[in-house]
Design goal:
By secondary structure, the chain is α/β, with parallel strands linked by helices. Helix 4 runs parallel beside helix 5 and helix 7 runs parallel beside helix 8. The longest helix is centred in the middle third of the chain and has 18 residues.
Length: 383
């Protein structure tokens, strides 16, 4: 997502297509209504159905610069893209507004801060998003962990933000050889990230909004592969977000996996699904809401998330990234997941009316496309 450019170069590596699907049996929950707790989402005081969008605040691209004050009211969570590290392993995160040379219409710092306060007064949440396509973050040491907490806290305090979005991509997260249990991770970069986020949550309290935007490679691919595997040789990034999501699930406000810039991913039906259509979003979201055995091990199940903690991540327009889905197919996916109607080739294991909503890359690209994405969301939920 997190793309500064219209299309990403990311493609799913070949491992997912190289292993036979046979023998992977899904251990999933079957539900017909809302389940689980809603503590994190309730504390975050979000609407029952929320629209999340990324705002290109620190850079320019073909979609144009949008001032904070001009962000349409449709967007309930506004993610500032991006806070980036001074180096891959420093943990020192910096954020600044787009330079005027790139964004001639950029507002002043004071105007930006005032606009954030106005959005918050209107009930919106404004977060700093860390990482993105270019911002590789590896907290390999406790010093980097502590610097991350300090520097991210400084950004939150400077702009009066509501919380943090973790958008680690590329090689930010991978699992060390032999780190095979997502419930008890050993890899320093994983352990330190979990500790850092817990420290920030403790500092800011129950109203702290925590969201994550991993790619499918780091989450749903974990149904087939986890890390380098028992025998080694697999991509060590496979499923690498799972220990982070699991350790922080009680603190997590919202998970919106990027259902785009993805290769084919196996669903709980043991069939491969490709992006850009309703079935892909249904299959990927069903995995989060039903739970799934990690690396096909029925004794090691990633538990289902509460539907209020899950949104579907999509490109806001054909220009925004690979895997754009038409408004009609977005509506079909929502109908299938929340009403178990309008389903296509994939049958989900339940229906979840409390599914939180949608995430888009990005607010800017939606504006560039005439607001088609946000208008479809508002029409669907009658807002």
């Amino acid at each position: 997502m997190s793309l500064r450019f219209p299309l990403s170069k990311r493609v799913l590596t070949g491992v997912c297509a190289s292993v036979a699907a046979a023998g992977l049996l899904a251990t999933v929950s079957t539900t017909t209504a809302d389940a689980g707790t809603t503590s994190a989402a309730t504390k975050a005081a979000l609407p029952d159905h929320a629209l999340v969008g990324y705002l290109h605040s620190s850079f320019a691209n073909g979609s144009g610069y949008t001032k904070m004050a001009d962000v349409p009211d449709s967007w309930d969570i506004i993610d500032l893209a991006f806070g980036e590290p001074t180096s891959t392993t420093s943990g020192d995160i910096r954020f600044s507004l787009c330079p005027q040379s790139e964004c001639p219409n950029v507002e002043s710092e004071d105007e930006f801060k005032a606009a954030i306060k106005a959005k918050q007064a209107a009930g919106k949440k404004v977060l700093i998003s860390i990482g993105g396509q270019n911002g590789q973050v590896q907290l390999t040491t406790t010093a980097a962990r502590d610097k991350f907490v300090e520097s991210v806290g400084a950004i939150i305090d400077k702009y009066g933000l509501d919380g943090l979005d973790i958008d680690f991509e590329g090689h930010s997260l991978s699992l060390d050889d032999g780190d095979t249990d997502f419930k008890n991770p050993k890899t320093p970069a994983i352990v330190n990230l979990i500790a850092a986020v817990k420290s920030l949550k403790a500092k800011y309290g129950s109203d702290f909004v925590l969201t994550m935007a991993p790619e499918t490679f780091f989450v749903q691919l974990g149904y087939q592969f986890y890390g380098s595997g028992a025998s080694g040789g697999q991509d060590p990034r496979s499923g690498a977000y799972l220990p982070v999501i699991h350790a922080l699930r009680d603190d997590l406000t919202l998970l919106h996996v990027q259902d785009y810039n993805s290769g084919p991913i196996m669903g709980l039906d043991n069939q491969f699904h490709t992006m850009g259509n309703a079935d892909f979003h249904v299959a990927m979201t069903d995995m989060l809401l039903s739970g799934f055995p990690v690396a096909g091990n029925a004794d090691n199940v990633f538990p289902a998330l509460d539907p209020s903690q899950v949104a579907i991540g999509l490109p806001a327009s054909p220009n925004a990234g690979n895997g754009h889905t038409t408004p009609g197919d977005v509506t079909k996916a929502l109908n299938c997941l929340t009403k178990k109607s309008d389903c296509g080739g994939y049958e989900p294991h339940g229906s979840w009316p409390a599914l939180r909503g949608l995430m888009a890359w990005s607010i800017n690209w939606d504006g560039f496309n005439g607001g088609e994405f946000s208008k479809n969301f508002e029409t669907y939920y009658g807002r």
